[in-house]
Design goal:
The chain has about 230 residues and is of the alpha/beta class. It has helices at about 35-50, 55-70, 80-85, 90-95, 105-115, 130-140, 160-170, 185-195, and strands spanning about 20-25, 120-125, 145-150, 180, 200, 220. Helix 1 (about 35-50) crosses helix 2. The structure holds magnesium ion. Magnesium ion (MG) binds next to loops.
Length: about 230
């Protein structure tokens, strides 16, 4: 359920001195969502259709209801689920496309600043552990985090209270002194309901799609908009 109304709220500034923890999403926040959109929107329908004599458009149309059915659940993000459902070796196919895994602009610079700050820097992703490992192998991202969480290890996606309860138990944080950045407003809804006070979304998760004008949460385009107040780096 939407807890806030659509707006084009910009982020004025972040007072880092009021924060102890930053929670960061991966895909669409730190990494370009184009990889995932292309993989699930084109590559997988193409492979699936090849074995059934269907072109990409026909496969996309056939698969759309299957994707829609589990959106927002852990299955939606689960490679095992889709490998079985579609009778495809998804991890192997995904490995073949790993060159498409890219940082979003300024994401690495932002992480370097955070790394020298007082903040506990935690990655929280709905990506499957195999996907997380693949991305961490492709890009040196693990070095920037004090802790990394795949929601599959909790058995509950970020959209659920159970995820937040489990995160709190494993890595305690003060919700009023925590900033969470995620491109998914459904995920931000769950964080807001849990009591996380500082929430930011992204205007352009996928570099090949137009930036979002309207968002329900304060939005940034690039991380330079919130760098002020973080320690300098070389
Ligand atoms: Mg995301």
């Amino acid at each position: 359920m939407a807890l806030t109304v659509a707006t084009n709220l910009a982020v004025e500034t972040v007072d880092w001195s009021q924060l102890d923890t930053i929670l960061l999403d991966m895909d669409g926040t730190l990494l370009d969502l184009e990889f995932d959109n292309h993989f699930w929107g084109t590559v997988i329908p193409e492979r699936w259709g090849q074995e059934r004599g269907l072109d990409v458009a026909a496969s996309q149309a056939t698969l759309a209801p299957l994707f829609k059915e589990v959106r927002g659940t852990l299955d939606w993000y689960c490679l095992d689920y889709w490998s079985q459902k579609l009778s495809l070796d998804i991890p192997t196919i995904k490995t073949g496309y790993s060159e498409g895994i890219r940082w979003r602009p300024q994401a690495e610079t932002f992480l370097r600043h955070l790394n020298t700050s007082h903040l506990d820097v935690v990655l929280i992703t709905n990506a499957h552990p195999v996907t997380l490992a693949m991305k961490a192998e492709r890009l040196p991202l693990a070095q920037w985090f004090n802790h990394m969480v795949s929601s599959h290890d909790y058995g509950a996606p970020k959209e659920t209270t159970r995820f937040w309860d489990t995160l709190m138990a494993e890595r305690p944080f003060d919700p009023e002194r925590t900033l969470f950045v995620d491109d998914s407003e459904y995920v931000l809804d769950a964080a807001l309901a849990y009591g996380v006070s500082h929430l930011i979304t992204l205007r352009q998760p996928d570099s090949t799609l137009a930036p979002r004008e309207q968002t329900r949460f304060p939005a940034i385009h690039h991380f330079e908009e919130i760098l002020q107040g973080l320690p300098d780096i070389d």
